[in-house]
Amino acid sequence: MRGLCAWFAVVWLLLPPAAFGQAASANLTGTVKDTSGAVLPGVTITAKSVATNEIRTTVSGSDGLYRLTNLPRGTCEVSAELQGFRTLRQSDVLLTVGDTVKLDFPMEVGTVSESITVKGQAPLVNTEEGRVFVLVDEKRVAELPLNGRNAMQLIGAPARRQREPRQPGARRIGGRQRARS
Predict the structure, then answer these.
(1) Are 80 and 107 in contact (CB under 8 A)?
(2) Are the C-beta atoms of 40 and 64 separated by less than 8 Å?
(3) Deepest of 1, 36, 73, 123, by most Cβ within 10 A of its Cβ?
(4) For residue 101, which of 111, 88, 92, 110 has the smallest C-alpha distance?
């Protein structure tokens, strides 16, 4: 029994840190600039979750950069406010699990009562992190050919690709088919 406990302790210590870093939330980052391209420090950035009405706020730094971390997944509305500038609002910003969305704000000089609302989604290309991931929704999981509907079977399943059908008279060179000449 003591040996089994020691074995589990060793395995626990050797687990990669990435296994514990699986995020169930999203991040929002970007730069705030004026119309001339100069960065704006001190801009209040507010993200409001549409589903829960949870509000998270931060202030852009001296370099104009802001970052909101651990935001709940789902759709949110993001606004940027600074006295002497028009308030900008970006609605329908989709945050998915583990994603970092880049959202820049070009602030225009105006009165406090003026605001600009932009509707649409942030770009689908993640330029903040060098990783590739695929979000598998419930529909795709339900369509997977699992025996007994046990999703744990996916853990050991290797990634597969479809093979190209062999053409008569062709041979493989370097993994690709080449026609004989």
Answers:
(1) yes
(2) yes
(3) 73
(4) 92
What's this model's pTM, rounded to 2 decimal places?
0.56
Number of Cβ atoms within 10 Å of the Cβ of 93: 21
Copy the structure tokens of residue 27.
């991040």
User: What are φ and ψ of residue 25, in 5° steps?
Assistant: -135, -175
E strand intervals along the chain = 26-34, 44-49, 55-59, 65-71, 74-81, 87-95, 100-102, 105-107, 115-119, 170-173, 176-179
Task: Domains for the chain: give ranges and CATH numbers.
Answer: 26-119 (2.60.40.1120)
What pLDDT digit, counting tens, does each position of 65-98 carry?
999 999 988 899 999 999 889 899 998 898 888 8
CA distance linking residue 73 with residue 75, whole number of Å: 7
Q: What is the dihedral of CA 41, 124, 48, 28, to 10 degrees?
A: -40
Angle CA(52)–CA(55)–CA(56) in degrees, nearest 5? 130
Question: Torsions phi, psi of 125, nearest 5?
Answer: -90, 125
Query: What pLDDT, in 10s, does the model give residues 14-33?
Result: 665 544 555 578 899 999 99
* Cβ pair 107, 32 in contact under 8 A: yes
d(CA 39, CA 32): 6
Q: And the tokens for 91?
A: 């609605």
